[in-house]
Amino acid sequence: MIRIFLVDDHEVVRRGIADLINAEADLEVVGEASTARQAVARLAATLPDVAVLDVRLPDGSGIDVCRAIRSKNPTVQCLIFTAFDDDEATYAAVLAGASGYVLKDIRGQRLIESIRRVALGETLVTRAVAAHVVTSLGADRAEPAATLTARERQVLELISRGLTNRQIGEQLDLAEKTVKNYVSGLLGKLGMQRRTQAAVYGAELHNREPAAREGVRAFGPGTLAE
């Protein structure tokens, strides 16, 4: 069962999304909030698998809520759900650690699909935003990936595929704690704070390499939106 928390200041919108989600056998709404303050407190108490966050709230931003909850509880995946198609907000959401950014005019089944994919660890980011993130994060550093060891590059690629530390450990025959240390090390070398940033960076980096241009993709099917 995927546990979901909804944050939106419009009760009618929350009710509609909740009904849509609760109609699915594998999804369950475990909490709701209408303000940023309520959201931070209630998310910390419920620790859902996915938080669906509106960007504009009466007392703040869903992006700020994402940053706050991900800093303390990185296992909570955040999906920004908004009526506003704003490239800068999308970019800010990625930097805050959000796994995706979807518009309220999408079909209900697309939202359900997005929630499931985010819960599995996938990153739903457009190629344009991915390139923007990579360019910005690397603007003050000359090829930051060149400082990574071979093992750190392996871990970075698996992060970009949406694998958890435990799954990475199983694939590379490493203890989960060792993987966590590798992740912390590569984030430090890349000057990043969020795993989502590393996932986007790793995917874009891989897609720039010759093998990627010949058809090999860094992410699993559909992880980065076209």
TrEMBL record:
Stretches assigned to the Response regulatory domain: 3-119
PROSITE patterns given in the database record: HTH_LUXR_2, RESPONSE_REGULATORY
Keywords (A to Z) from UniProt: DNA-binding, Phosphoprotein, Transcription, Transcription regulation
GO BP: any one term: phosphorelay signal transduction system
Keyword Lipid biosynthesis: no
Record PTM 4-aspartylphosphate, positions in chain: 54
GO molecular function, one term: DNA binding
SUPFAM superfamilies, per the entry: C-terminal effector domain of the bipartite response regulators, CheY-like
InterPro entries (UniProt xref): CheY-like_superfamily, NreC/VraR/RcsB-like_REC, Sig_transdc_resp-reg_C-effctor, Sig_transdc_resp-reg_receiver, Tscrpt_reg_LuxR_C, WalR-like
PANTHER family: TRANSCRIPTIONAL REGULATORY PROTEIN NARL-RELATED, TWO-COMPONENT RESPONSE REGULATOR
Name the UniProt record assigns to this protein: Response regulator transcription factor
